[in-house]
Automatic annotation (TrEMBL), chain B:
Gene3D superfamilies (alphabetical): Helix-loop-helix DNA-binding domain
GO CC field: nucleus
Compartmental location: Nucleus
InterPro entries tied to this protein: bHLH_dom, bHLH_ZIP_TF, HLH_DNA-bd_sf
Region (Disordered): 227-360, 534-558
CDD domains for this protein: bHLH_AtBPE_like
Record domain BHLH: where: 372-422
One MF annotation (Gene Ontology) recorded for this entry: protein dimerization activity
Biased composition annotated in UniProt, kind: Basic and acidic residues: 227-246, 322-337
Name of the protein: Transcription factor bHLH74
UniProt keyword terms in alphabetical order: DNA-binding, Nucleus, Transcription, Transcription regulation
Pfam (any one): HLH
Organism taxonomic ancestry: Eukaryota, Viridiplantae, Streptophyta, Embryophyta, Tracheophyta
Length: 162, 558
């Protein structure tokens, strides 16, 4: 094992730091392992959100998909807390979706079906033309692999802990 | 990046086609220049290329060889520079700066200084455009020093470049690839233009060397007609006659000779200088000054091109068939070049359709690719498509197992599948984390360090799996099996995850028949890296792995 100098500002390190901190927050309150499926599911939800959020924060606003993810997370949390304002949030999402569809019609790409699918997959992809969409997809793929790797490693570590 | 290289190589091929019938020394040198131009660093190229443009015809073959060797010494490519747009934009800006800075070191007579500077701007901007490198600002001042080698030749070159000089400003635009190629074409045209000067004088004497040159000349004229037509606009009639005779002379010769014709050309140039070559250049000079002085608008050029091409159409229909055959090959090269030119000029002038319609019928003056529209919309569309294909190639490298796939639709399908599987993977892992209740009372920072360390060591020590398509299919059937809670289920999923991630980060030796080894290898790494009580966890994991092996294998065979 060679101790190569780590890049402290690499995507992996940033994401891992944030994710581990989020994990500790999630797991701290629960001292006794609760095996009820619902609680586990809740924890899963939180962990997943933590993973996405930490990934998006690691990328900041440099990428459209990260911005979209952060915005989505914020609006979701807001909509949960403020039920009365939930309509506004849903309206916002609707407007973005419709705007994206207009864009789709304009560009009329030959690969319309797959482009649509890709847009649904990549957060924030609805309002992008194919060119930028492919850019975002490339970066998104790279970040997803990093995310998966780090979460997996975190999981192994936690397994080792207990 | 691949695309940048690919564009460069296209450019190279076009140049090769365009100068196929030139004199051997010139063509060889130019091809080297073209190839080296596109693949070498600018620092080494620029000083050797600039003289190559003008000096090769005047210099001896040894000079050319030295330049060529210099070029090939630095075969670095610009793969590290990502997409081409950024690079060419930088190149454009730098070439603009170059144009300004080049005004200084010209060492010609005052009357020729301006045209010469423009010629050099053209050459340098061409080279820079062809570089695709953002650090092309370092155009070395060595290039002008090479010029005084042949003052008479340079003089003529300057005069001839005056016609091209005015339109160079157009070529230097922020539009990436076409700009560079157009600029490159400008440079080629410049070279051809200078040779044409020799041709004018060369026709007057008859010799063996002369025949070589006239062959050059004939191709030059046809090439010139394709690329740059300002010259033609100004001196149609005398050139027409000459072209006919030239084409006749050229038709007599078939084989392309490969020797130091450049040296002969220089002699010819000097000899013909006094004969009567001055008449033409002077005429050209006077008429050429105007467009260059005004900073030619595309409209004007388009009109002149149209006139010239109609005249040339009449004039060139008479030439011998041999000339036709020769020109066709060049035409193919020129077609693409003119396509590029067409692209840039129409982008600026918004007048592509009218001027390009007549030339389409002519076999020499093709402006756009056959069967393709030439209005700005289709050109923009074509550029957009090229951008998209660029990115698709980049994604192809990113997504494993897509190198054999051809076609956008299938590629997009693969990409979609890959993104979906990655997202599901994260979901799996977070679910797994949720089920395992970690007691994170141990040092989080230590965990963090080790995680990063492992993440560094993992991908670095192990390669990337070449084919992950099987992983996706594995993941898909496992989806319905995802039940929160229940360790055996998670163990199964963990095994899947391990195999998937293992294939991500480890070279797959023998496909999925040895996932156990791979996961064990990875586990070994973890063992050595993590200096905690990991032993409790590892055996359970390995048990899970062993226990679920049969099921795992069964699903592998799916």
């Amino acid at each position: 094992m060679d101790l190569q100098n780590l890049n402290p500002s690499s995507l992996k390190s940033r994401f891992t730091a944030r994710f581990l901190r989020a994990l500790t927050e999630i797991n701290a309150p629960k001292t006794i392992s609760s095996s009820s499926p619902r609680e586990i599911f809740q924890r899963y939800r939180r962990i997943k959100v933590a993973a996405d959020k930490s990934m998006a924060y690691s990328v900041r606003s440099r990428r459209i998909w990260s911005r979209a993810t952060l915005w989505r997370l914020r609006t979701r949390s807001r909509s949960r807390r403020l039920v009365s304002f939930g309509r506004r949030a849903s309206v916002k999402t609707r407007t973005t979706a419709s705007h994206g569809k207009e864009n789709k019609e304009h560009h009329g790409a030959v690969l319309g079906v797959q482009a649509e699918e890709l847009r649904e997959l990549v957060p924030g992809g609805e309002a992008m033309d194919l060119c930028n969409l492919l850019d975002e997809t490339a970066h998104y793929i790279k970040c997803l692999t990093t995310q998966g790797f780090c979460v997996y490693m975190g999981g192994l570590l936690c397994e080792g802990c207990c | 990046m691949d695309v940048g290289e690919k564009d460069k190589f296209e450019l190279e091929k076009r140049n090769e086609n365009g100068i196929n019938y030139q004199g051997s020394g010139m063509s060889a040198a130019w091809q080297f220049a073209g190839g080296g131009n596109l693949t070498s660093t600018p620092m080494s190229l620029v000083p050797s290329d600039n003289p190559l443009v003008i000096g090769s015809s005047s210099g001896s073959a040894s000079m050319v060889d030295s330049f060529c060797s210099n070029l090939w010494e630095h075969p670095s490519n610009s793969q590290s520079l990502g997409f081409c747009d950024i690079n060419v934009q930088n190149g454009a800006s730098s070439s603009n700066a170059m144009g300004i800075t080049k005004g200084g070191p010209a060492s010609m007579s005052s009357s020729i200084d301006r045209q010469f500077d423009m010629a050099w701007n053209a050459a340098s901007s061409m080279l820079k455009g062809g570089m695709f490198l953002p650090n092309a600002t370092g155009i070395l001042p060595q290039s002008p020093s090479q010029l005084p080698a042949d003052s008479a030749f340079i003089e003529r070159a300057a005069k001839f470049s005056s016609f091209n000089g005015g339109s160079f400003s157009e070529m230097v635009n922020p539009f990436g690839i076409p700009e560079s190629m157009a600029v490159y074409n400008r440079g080629v045209g410049l070279m051809q233009g200078t040779q044409n000067v020799f041709a004018i004088g060369g026709l007057k004497s008859v010799s063996g060397v002369e025949s070589q040159k006239s062959k050059l000349i004939a191709t030059e004229t046809s090439g010139d007609a394709c690329l740059k037509t300002e010259n033609r606009a100004t001196q149609e009639s005398p050139h027409k006659n000459e072209r006919r005779s030239e084409s006749l002379v050229w038709s007599n010769e078939e084989a392309r000779q490969e020797n130091g014709g450049s040296g002969n050309e220089s002699n010819e140039a000097e000899s013909s200088d006094g004969v009567g070559g001055q008449d033409e250049p002077s005429a050209l000079h006077s008429t050429g000054c105007e467009p260059s002085a005004k900073g030619v608008s595309s409209k004007k050029r388009r009109r002149s091109i149209q006139d010239v091409e109609t005249d040339q159409a009449k004039g060139s229909q008479s030439p011998v068939d041999a000339a036709k055959d020769g020109a066709e090959n060049q035409q193919k090269g020129d077609r693409d070049q003119s396509t590029v030119m067409n692209k840039t000029t129409t982008k600026h002038g918004k007048q592509g359709s009218q001027a390009s319609d007549p030339p389409k019928e002519e076999y020499i003056h093709v402006r756009a690719r056959r069967g393709q529209a030439t209005n700005s919309h289709s050109l923009a569309e074509r550029v957009r498509r090229e951008k998209i294909s660029e990115r698709m190639k980049f994604l192809q490298d990113l997504v494993p197992g897509c190198s054999k796939v051809t076609g956008k639709a299938v590629m997009l399908d693969e990409i979609i599948n890959y993104v979906q599987s990655l997202q599901r993977q994260v979901e799996f892992l977070s679910m797994k984390l949720a089920t395992v209740n970690p007691r994170l009372d141990c040092n989080i920072e230590g965990l963090l360090e080790k995680d990063i360390f492992k993440s560094r060591a993992g991908p670095s020590a192990l390669g990337f799996s070449p084919d992950l398509s099987v992983c996706y299919t594995l993941l898909h059937p496992s989806q319905p099996g995802l039940v929160p809670g229940g360790l055996p289920v998670m163990g199964n999923n963990a095994d899947f995850m391990r195999r998937t991630l293992g294939s991500h980060f480890t070279p797959m030796a023998g496909g999925f028949k040895e996932p156990n080894q791979l996961s064990n290898a990875w586990e070994d790494e973890l063992h050595s890296a993590v200096q905690m009580n990991y032993g409790a966890g590892a055996p359970s994991n390995s048990q899970e792995v062993n226990g679920s092996q049969p099921s795992g294998h069964a699903e592998v065979e799916l």
